[in-house]
Records
---
Amino acid sequence: MLCECLVTTMTYPATVQFLYSLQQHGIKLGLETIRALLARVGDPHRRYPVLHIGGTNGKGSTAAMAASMLHAAGHRVGLYTSPHLIDFRERIRVDGVMIPEARVSELVESLRAAATPDLAPTFFEFTTALAFQHFAECRVDVAVLEVGLGGRFDATNVVTPLASAITTIGLDHEAYLGSTIEAIAFEKAGIIKPGVPVVLGRMDASARRVMEERASAEAAPVYLLDRDFRSEGESTADCGYAGMRRRYTRLTCPLQGRFQLDNLACALALIELAHETGVTVPETAVRAGLRQVAWEGRVEVIGQDPTVMVDGAHNPAAARVLADSLAEWRRARPAGRITLIVGMMRDKHPRAFLAPLLPIVDTLILTQADLPRASTGSELRALLADVAPAAQVVPTAADAIAMATRSAASSDLICVTGSLMLVGEIKALFRGCSLSPLRG
């Protein structure tokens, strides 16, 4: 059952507009405000055990898999992720169900009162407190939390989890996290807590050294992909897992792409560690949870004839993973053509992002997500003039998908990527629904 909601005087549209207004505070890395706000509402994040998942890429998929397995085991599970694709409420779920609109309004009003008069939380701080409060009042058995940005100063980092995972390390959000792999790894390693075991996914040696040094300083046991646990097989449709104490064969997961094998292994390692602390997850639940997991916007097919795929890749490491998936598609359909629709935020690196993708695609369309901080198609073309001179510019996402569809054969592939915001816009178009005005 969903939590009971009290009568509130604030409408949901007004609530969303208030949350949108918090973006004027920008991104402030630090934990003082979120700790103070949570203390004023009774520290709800201390009322349930937590699994905490960070990393540059893969953390959302890993969180979704872990939550699905826990739910299949009969646990009441809170899942907090970001960003959302279409509806703000996607960020906060209990047992897979989005937080009700009335609940958002009620909790936002109570948190506004708690923050007055001296706290000025950012959007993400406010949303994190909202999630923690909802989970507490819904009496979840366990919460799975995805880190928003970085780790050390991310608002979610006020928790002391049963176990943590850091999936990958790559260049992203350099303005906040640093311009080197080592600097970014240092920020991501900030979620490692004293004595709390940490699962490390696929990363280069320099990032791993940073992680292991932090873990050693915190006396936190480290479990490393391909050393202590691993996935087996070539596809999530039929794969296996060899872990610290558990081993499974013939696992099935609907999330597509070979990269999901690493995420699956990290999720299963987390579940192993949670099981050892008393959050039991039997093999039947592992199998059922993986079989039932859903995670939108990652190598997701949303249309056929031609195939329309969306993928929220927005940094070079994620682009390389997407390139592998597109190359696999082309090998299976050598006569098919690939059209790539790309829109990116202004703080991203389109040349590095497109480097692994351009050799695979036949047509490149540059467009803009409907957000002020998004690059226009013309801005992207100017940055890519020498490496993609034939790129076409279409001002809006709707016009871009219409152009691509008109020129595609039924055997072709249209892939939309470069931004989760753009992916959400395209998915909303295909569903025939409107977007939440708050998508930062």
Note: The chain has 15 helices and 17 strands.
---
Amino acid sequence: MTLNSIDDFYKRATATLPEGISKEIGHFNVFEIEKLFDKKTGTRIMPYSRRAYYKISFIQGKNRAEYADKIIEINGSALLFATPKISYHWIPEDDNQAGLFCIFTSDFLSKNRAGIVLDDLPIFRPGELPVFQLTSEQSEELGYLFRKMYKELQTDYIYKYDLLRNLLLEVIHFGQKLQPASSLSSVQNASDRISSLFIELLERQFPLESQEQRLSLRTAKDYANRLAVHVNHLNKVLKEITGNTTTEIISNRIAQEAKILLKQTDWNISEIAYMLGFDDLANFSNFFKKQTSFTPMGFRA
């Protein structure tokens, strides 16, 4: 999806423009974790949309990362890599939360001559374990890099975004060299977690608020790949918990969004069909009629 400006991006994401992000250079920012953590309630303030950004976190404290089929326990300092394409839950387990994290989109690094494709890197690839426990020496080195990014972002240096890209690449390569966290554990509620993460991943694609948006996940296999589980296992889990198959849940949600777009927008039906992942209008019409007993035009009328 091509956006005219970062202002347009935040308007479409129903968010405000965070301080420190350039309108010309790309999407990048750095946050201090402690300032976003409410110790009274034990909750975090989320100043950005997970589905829009890559994220690298330097975390200090006791935490738990929950993925579809595994849990990673962290006690101390850790480095976490997150991509908009993989759903997870990060759960603080004490009040001593500190560190920093940066968020960015792939276009921020596209200006770098390194030519890195983020999704090709193991740390951003589905099925990998992107959480790394750090030694005190590694923590000191990584903390220095994050603090340097945080401070540099506040300066008026004319080439600061070139410097920030280089620092970001250094953090990425730092993570590439680390061994994955070994404290994995299977838990009895793994099925509930898979179901929860599937629903979160499904809902991240909605609502469709711009004709430039289009669903990227359309099939059960698409979701299974993102969750790093076998499609048969995903189907079994969802059938047991919800009573519906993966395909039925996806289809019901797409039909729900189609109804909203048909009733609340004046976009033509071909545009709506394309946004919902249908390349052919006839296929969309057949799908919609099967789900609702109406044609799209009949439902709109």
Note: The beta strands are 28-32, 37-38, 43-44, 54-66, 71-82, 89-92, 98-104, 131-133, 184-185.
---
Amino acid sequence: METALIEKVGQIGLPVKDLDRALRFYKGTLGLTLLFNTDRMAFLEAGELRLMLSLPEKDEFAHSSSVLYFQVKNIKEAYERLSGKEIQFIGEPHMVAKMEQTETWMVFFKDTEGNTHAFMSEEQG
């Protein structure tokens, strides 16, 4: 049997309109660790995943990204802690699934660049 070619997702790229503003949001508001940056890109660490913020090279790449689901331990605490900061929540934390004793909770938000993302947590119900 052949071994898998792809081991894991190593990096996700997000198009941004204003790199400084996006960096303040992802580093300052969300608390991700900045690895390094250039005048057109910034690389941040989100657990074992690297997030690349970049100014699009061409207009055809200047569109909103896929939804990133950031795992948090306590979604209600994350929501309360970040409400009123540079984050626009879309609704409130809510349960989206329950399997046996595990509840999956989510709350969606927009970043400073118009991308929609979510916080998610799995709690024992």
Note: The beta strands are 11-15, 33-37, 41-46, 49-54, 69-71, 88-99, 102-110, 116-124.
---
Amino acid sequence: MDPVLELVMAVKVANRELERRFARLLRPLGVTPVQAEALVILAEDGPLSIAGLGARMAADPGHPSRLADRLGAAGWIERRPSPHDGRQVELALTPSGRELADRIRAVRRPFVEGAEAALAEQGLDDALPTVRRLLEFVRSLPEVP
């Protein structure tokens, strides 16, 4: 198999398996992996605009808005006017959203630490830039109609 294709497939399979296992860990918290990712991003980087959240999540257009609607309906985030631009809306965690983000991080901590240990042998500092360069290349390709 071509080494580039093998790398891409290995990352895809690893991501699918990580998502599946992470979903099981999150089930008792009543949150999906995508919701958990958004809540943790907002806890660490927020408040953010919907576009800012989408960029950090590498989400499809339209998805961050629907995700924000679901997180708001659950009482985990609130929309508020941006202090920098009154035309913009920021997403911020509510107290219950912050508590849930803390619980998500606690649940995923052993998961992330185990993955870091597994990657340390090969050098996470080398692997991540390699995957990022591959992603940049793929994004630079012209769209196929």
Note: The chain has a mean pLDDT of 85.
